[in-house]
Amino acid sequence: MSKARITGIGHYVPERIVTNFDLEKVMDTSDAWIKERTGISERRYFDPDKDTVANMAARAANAAIAQAEIETRQIDFIVFATITPDYFFPGSGVLLQRELGLEGIGALDIRNACSGFIYAISIAEQYIKAGTYKNVLVVGAEIQSSALEMNDRGRSVSVIFADGAGAVVVQATDQEDNRGILSTHLHADGRFAEELYVKDPGSSRKLRLTKEMIDDPGIRAHMNGNMVFKHAIVRFQEVIYEALKANKLKVDDLDLFIPHQANLRISQYVQKQLGLSDDQVFNNIMKYGNTTAASIPIAMSEAWTEGKLKPGDLLCIAAFGSGFTWASSLIKF
Ligand code: UT7
Predict the structure, then answer these.
(1) How wide is the angle at C-alpha 302 spanned by C-alphas 267 and 133, nearest 5°?
(2) Residues acting as catalytic residues
(3) Distance from residue 115's CA to the centre of ligand 1 (Å)
């Protein structure tokens, strides 16, 4: 049976930097509050004249494909994780496929929010192990900023979320070493669906979209921040230990932990509970905010470029978010 190995990583973030001080000008917030509660100093917002979810994904994908040292035409399947697609339908996978000129190959969209990238990785892993595909492109990309409410009412959500894209190439390998995706672990609990969600425009209403909805908070992300936080710190630990146990490994065996970049306080709490040192954890939420499905591949790409993720390293990625969904994966690089 083939193993699935990540052979290329890339990312793209929009050029426009929005600092906490920029947000102070449009809503009742402060650089001190945002830094203290979330760790974020600045984030990137897309350029409507230039960036789309699909073309940001394509830029990240091209970097990952170049690093994998394969031709784009060798990609035989796309898995695209996003909750902010360019269209209501079709999904972003087909748009990325078109951007890359890969007409004919399958393209699958994943809507598992912050856990979306790990869900997507698990699909690539399984298709490769089953022998169905050899080179799967896995992408997480989001444009959140166009839906943020830039005023006092929206401040608790708006200061956190932002835009970006990350991608990896997952390849089949028959090499006898232990490198590759060791396992993935996926969970969900739909009882908490409405604790972090966007209600409208919803398909199950008599009129999907009304004029009144424009001013209603229902079209914006609603987040019960405290509840999400409390569940996140528990589920993160559970799902990391689950992955370690499944592979008969210990926390000490980890070279690097890259959590979904939801909130620096969540990452730091989990780090402390696990007893990981600072150089065993990679965070970049300070620069990019929370980019949902894109945050883990963006962080992996930066960690790789900065030499903090190296060949042979044992990496743990883990996420928690809307659904609730949570997930982890252990990867030997
Ligand atoms: O990636 C998806 C998963 N998402 C997460 O994991 C997010 C998890 N939750 C969080 O990150 C945190 O709950 C938040 C950062 C969203 C909020 O931090 P918090 O420490 O839980 O603050 P809070 O919601 O309890 O609000 C504390 C106070 C409130 O004022 P009062 O009621 O104490 O007077 C808020 O109105 O802070 C106020 N507040 C703000 N103040 C300044 C809320 N948002 C802001 C803001 N600027 N942007």
Answers:
(1) 100
(2) 114, 260, 290
(3) 21
